[in-house]
Amino acid sequence: MNNNIFPCLWYDGDATESAEFYCKVFNGKITADTPMVMNIDLFGQKLMLLNGGPHFTKNASVSFMIICETEVEVQKYWDQLIDGGIALMEIGEYPWSKKYGWVRDKFGVTWQVYLGENGDVEQKIIPTLMFIHQNNGKAMEAMKLYTQIFPNSKIGNVLKYGDGVGNETHEIPENVQHAHFEIDGYSFFCMDNSYDHQFDFNEGISIVVMTDSQDQTDNYWNALTIDGGRESMCGWLKDKFGMSWQIVPKRLIELMSDSDPEKAQKVIMAMMKMQKIVIQDLEEAYVS
């Protein structure tokens, strides 16, 4: 399992409550606990919960598929996630699964609870990207871009709407109904959808990529911001589809975690002024 790539969920002060809830639902554990950042481990997978303020709201353009082995397991997760939440697709039998439901929980995170074969996918929880509005029809293009940028990447099974599994939705036949891809060994699902949803990709859910060097940081940053992407602050960017990424050198975390609070604070202050993270500038702030 590659824990150098993981989702980040944006919260307005309730990250701790959410972390405790998910650890209870999925029998996980909290691995980092600070006022701003909570890290949790669910099934050996890392999720980051960020208390960032009221600026962004999580939505279903990025949901999380939970691959379950039994109908009892599906029901167990559903019963807990629906508590205080809203059913987007009621739990039941569908053409693609004997037991499936899509729920937005009380923290605004959307989960697809699914009875199905994992196949050769090791992950239990799989981020699922929905390409809508101006991105509808671009799921295949996105998969090709992402798998070209990252090593150890591949496009797996691709089901198109024209292949005919429960397509009564008048979707374009060549668009992606469901597909699997991996970047550096981390699995995603994706789909195209023509419905005029009242949401789209935003900073509410981003993907964090931890890097080993400045070269790696530069390469990912440049490749993801090319051709219509947009640089933001503190290592954040948006790619051409509007999907948010955080490209974070591991050295930043080491320096920010220094036992000398004054040095750590200098590093944080330097980082706050950056768009792309520059390791040498962090090191200079650390020793200044």
How would a crystallographer describe the biggest sheet?
8 strands, mixed
Gyration radius, in Å:
19 Å
**Unreliable segments of 5+ consecutive residues:** none
Distance between the termini: 38 Å
- In total, how many domains does the architecture comprise? 2
Give the CATH H-level superfamily of the largest domain. Answer: 2,3-Dihydroxybiphenyl 1,2-Dioxygenase, domain 1
Multimerization state: single chain
Q: What order do the helices and strands follow? A: EHEEEEHEEEEHEEEEHEEEHHH
Strand order within the widest beta sheet: 2-3-4-1-13-16-15-14
What number is the mean pLDDT?
A: 94
Q: Do you know the CATH topology of the largest domain? A: 2,3-Dihydroxybiphenyl 1,2-Dioxygenase, domain 1
Indicate the proportion of strand residues: 35-45%
Q: What is the CATH architecture assignment of the largest domain?
A: Roll
Structural class of the helix and strand makeup?
alpha+beta
Overall 3D form: globular
Condensed summary:
By secondary structure, this protein is α+β, with helices and mostly antiparallel strands. The protein contains 7 helices and 16 strands. Strands 2-3-4-1-13-16-15-14 form an 8-stranded mixed sheet. The chain has an 8-stranded mixed sheet with strand order 6-7-8-5-9-12-11-10, covered by helices on one side.
Task: Considering the chains and any ligands shown, give keywords for the structure.
2,3-Dihydroxybiphenyl 1,2-Dioxygenase, domain 1; eight-stranded mixed β-sheet; 3-demethylubiquinone-9 3-methyltransferase; methyltransferase; 288 residues
